[in-house]
Specification:
Elements (H helix, E strand, L loop, with lengths): L1 H8 L3 H22 L7 H10 L16 H17 L3 H12 L7 H18 L2 H13 L2 H18 L4 H5 L6 H14 L11 H13 L6 H4 L17 H23 L7 H38 L11 H18 L5 H21 L6 H7 L7 H8 L61
Helix pairs in contact: 2-3, 2-4, 2-5, 4-6, 5-7, 6-7, 6-8, 7-10, 8-10, 11-14, 13-14, 13-15, 13-16, 14-16, 16-18
Length: 451
């Protein structure tokens, strides 16, 4: 590698970067012939950091900088390389060696270049780059995935109005990337503050994708070999938990946002108020559509989990994530005051109850009713949620019911004791027998109309 480095030092930045990719291609192609998962040696990593990410090898040396035109040309070189490389395994290992975080000073440059590369791939529809990015999102700690998601949202939702349509078109080109993008976006926007409510354009984009084909959010799960124990700190296999969080918290989060805007001392004008109300109304309709799609996907899961022999072993909606969601709902409910947000609290709890019931029935949520009862005990009362956490009771087999026993359908609601059986009613005394009226055929019955 030292000979290669000396030859690269004599080149300009762009030709050196192109030459590094060429040497890496040869190196990993030969490595893959002997090992299915070759390790990236220190030598190739140092070449990448020095000639692609412009991190100087010598300590104290000033970092090199590419101007905007050179950076655009470098991105074009990389896009073309991944487009022209026909072997998927080589593409994947080179993408991973380029952009897997190493925990050093090159990571910031690495992530910045990755965001621009994926953004360009979306703009010019470079499917190989998007597929590589999807695998990268699956195998990289979530903290870095969120950074990539933020870069794409900034480019396509905030920077240029209307450019969200470009992002929308990749749905058919790379569904796997769309699935991973949704997962990372739901991890980024958790509605914990007004700044972390998803932009309306982004929300509309994701709802349109999922409503068109709800199976989109299961693509990674259906096409990945899965162990029962998932690694901690990475994105989840599906965006289900994040989407449930969006649907459940949205009524409360938007109410909190509206309350904050009214309490800042500057009441909005009538035009601004009407515009905001219309936008919020559209968002609430989108969340309703999204909630329906999520329930449809949850209903599909039992068959898929059984087919993969994971039913009862893998919870795609982890109970550990349900607990903080319930705590956030309880905190928001207290913050908003039930007297002023009764409709929003009722809607949030209805959606939570529906999601919990369907997730438990399909095997996506692995917990008992007692677990739910404990977690949800501090939430405001909600009839539907009460039924879900109580659950149906299996009646014991019995020959005859004891006197005064009426078989109940559900266990009594929390905080209310079970009613004791009513005592048996005393028997009525026998009534005297009435004389039997003899029927005489042919006798007419006198009919007198009422005047």
């Amino acid at each position: 590698m030292s000979d290669i480095r000396h030859s690269l030092l004599r080149r300009d930045a762009l030709s050196a970067a192109k030459e590094v990719l060429y040497h890496l291609d040869i190196y990993f192609s030969s490595q893959l012939q002997s090992a299915p998962l070759p390790l990236v040696d220190k030598g190739p990593s140092e070449l990448l950091e020095e000639f692609l990410f412009q991190v100087p090898k010598e300590r104290g040396a000033p970092p090199k900088r590419l101007n905007s035109l050179q950076e655009l040309q470098l991105l074009e070189i990389m896009c073309n390389y991944f487009q022209e490389q026909t072997k998927d395994s080589v593409r994947q290992i080179i993408f991973s060696s380029l952009f897997s975080p190493q925990g050093n000073k090159a990571d910031d440059s690495r992530m910045a270049l990755l965001g621009k590369l994926v953004s360009m791939a979306v703009a010019v529809c470079r499917v190989p780059v998007l597929e590589c990015a999807a695998f990268w999102l699956q195998r990289t700690p979530a903290v870095y995935c969120v950074r990539l998601a933020r870069a794409l949202v900034d480019d396509y939702c905030n920077l240029v109005p209307g450019s969200i349509q470009t992002l929308k078109q990749i749905f058919s080109a790379s569904p796997r990337f769309c699935c991973q993008f949704i997962t990372s976006v739901t991890a980024l926007y958790d509605l914990s503050s007004d700044d972390l409510i998803p932009p309306s354009d982004l929300l509309e984009l994701i709802v349109s994708w999922i409503f068109e084909d709800p199976r989109l959010i299961l693509i990674t799960f259906l096409n990945t070999p899965i162990a029962a124990n998932l690694p901690i700190g990475f994105l989840e296999l599906t965006p289900l938990t994040g989407l449930i969080r969006w649907c459940v918290k949205a009524p409360l989060a938007y109410k909190r946002k509206k309350k904050a805007s009214l309490s800042n001392g500057h009441p909005p004008s009538k035009i601004a108020k009407d515009s905001t109300s219309g936008e919020d109304r559209d968002c609430h309709q989108l969340y309703s559509k999204l909630h329906l799609s999520v329930l449809q996907v949850l209903m599909m899961l039992q068959g898929h989990l059984t087919e993969k022999n994971l039913y009862g072993r893998l919870g795609l909606v982890p109970f550990d994530h349900v607990v903080p969601l319930v705590e956030e709902i309880n905190r928001l409910s207290d913050e908003l005051n039930p007297l002023n947000a009764s409709k929003e609290i009722e809607l949030a709890l209805d959606r939570l109850a529906q999601a919990l019931q369907v997730a438990m029935a399909s095997g996506a949520l692995l917990c008992t009713r007692d677990d739910l009862r404990t977690v949800c005990s501090r939430l405001p009362h909600n009839n539907l949620l009460q039924l879900v956490i109580s659950g149906p009771v299996q009646q014991p087999t019995h020959g005859t019911l004891p006197p005064g026993f009426y078989p109940h359908i559900h266990t009594p609601p929390l905080g209310y004791p079970a009613h004791a059986a009513h005592p048996a009613l005393p028997a009525h005394p026998a009534l005297p027998a009435h004389p039997v009226q003899t029927f005489i055929p042919g006798m007419t019955f006198p009919y007198r109309p009422i005047r």
